[in-house]
Each structure stands twice: as C-alpha cells, then as structure tokens.
Amino acid sequence: MAFLDRNQIVRTSDRTPSARGKELFAGILIVALIATVGIRNVVPADALAPAIVTLLFAVAAVTAGFALLCRRDRFRIMWFDLAGSLTFIGVVLSVLIEPDQMVRLFTLSHQPD
Predict the structure, then answer these.
(1) What's the CA gap between 20 and 31, in Å, rounded?
(2) What is residue 108's predicted lDDT score, i.e. its pLDDT?
(3) CA 52 to chain centre
(4) 3-state secondary structure 47-97
(5) What is the pTM of this model?
(6) Which one is predicted more confidently, 80 or 29?
(7) CA atoms lying within 13 Å on the CB side of residue 3
(8) Over pLDDT 70: what percentage of the chain?
(9) Distance separating alpha carbons of residues 61 and 20, to the nearest angstrom
C-alpha cells in the first residue's frame, strides 16, 4: 500500500503567489460595469449591448497586448487567461444582441430626440 505512505509528501511553501489573477479580473469587471453605467447615458438603449461587447473586446485586446509584453511566463499566462475570459464574456453577451440592434446602430435616424 504505497499510496498510504505519506512520508514522501513534499510540503509546498506557505508563500502566497505574487500573481493576483482573481483580484485583477474582479477589478476589470468592476471597471467594465462602471463604464457600462457611464455609457448607458450616452448611447441609446438598443445600442447598449453592442457597446458593452465592444468595450469587453477592446479591454481583452489590451490585456492580450500586455501579455505579449510581459517577460515572465507565469504572469504572461495569467494575462492571456484574463484576455481569454474577457473575450469569452464578450462572445456570450454578443449572443444576446439581436441583428436589428446592429442595424439601428449603424443607420441614421431622422427623427428628433
């Protein structure tokens, strides 16, 4: 019963990792939420979902660009994971966009506000 022998278990160090991926991701989502509240007053309600998705894709692109500039492998993987998760959230939200919303976003309206 070699699997019961616990003498050869190596203890990991009690140091906390210096990469704070969860906190950074939560911060990025909070900033996106604040930007959504700010965008809500600027764009019409039909264009809010496409604007949020575009914002998420832009933040994901900036995050991936930062990952390409990062020199250390562990941080680089964390930044790529963050960019991928933001892209995934953007794709999931883009499913909720109706095609009519995109058409109304790019066509000019001649009605007064």
Answers:
(1) 17
(2) 62
(3) 11
(4) HHHHHHHHHHHHHHHHHHHHHHHCCCHHHHHHHHHHHHHHHHHHHHHHHCC
(5) 0.67
(6) 80
(7) 0
(8) 74
(9) 20
